[in-house]
Amino acid sequence: GKPSNFTPNALPFVPNFAVLGENVKAAWPGCEHGKSQSGTQTATPILAAVMALILEFVDQKPRKTPDENRLLLRDHRVMTKVLLAMSDEVEGYRYVRPWKVMSSNVDRGRVEWRIQDAIAS
């Protein structure tokens, strides 16, 4: 990830999360091949979907994630810890890279351990 030419300056002293948000192909009514979208209106739902997938993952059975941690993830401060664990800093922004925690080539137990480790940090 890298900032787009329309990316505002990062705010000091807070995690400035960033995700894919430029030239994202989206379904669009009346447009057979979709339409490219850019900006916050594109990036925000992508990050919301990543967070929803984290919540869904820890709720799936069989699960090893303690109930307490599953509830804690619904707190924005705790979810921020998980997002920090799955992001890298570039030019003042934390680029979210879900594959740092969740990946198809890592077994479920390892992913749960990574999430619990982020919660405990």
Question: What's the quick description here?
Answer:
With 121 residues, the protein is α+β, with helices and mostly antiparallel strands. It has helices at residues 40-59, 67-72, 76-85, 108-120, and strands at 17-18, 24-28, 31-37, 87-90, 93-96.
Characterization of the model:
By secondary structure, the protein is α+β, with helices and mostly antiparallel strands. The strands form two sheets. A three-stranded mixed beta sheet has the order 1-5-4. The longest helix is centred in the middle third of the chain and has 20 residues, at 40-59. It is built from four helices and five strands. The chain has helices at 40-59, 67-72, 76-85, 108-120; strands spanning 17-18, 24-28, 31-37, 87-90, 93-96. The two termini are 25 Å apart. Strand 2 (24-28) and strand 3 form a beta hairpin. The mean pLDDT is 87. 40% of the residues lie in helices and 18% in strands. The radius of gyration is 16 Å and the shape is globular.
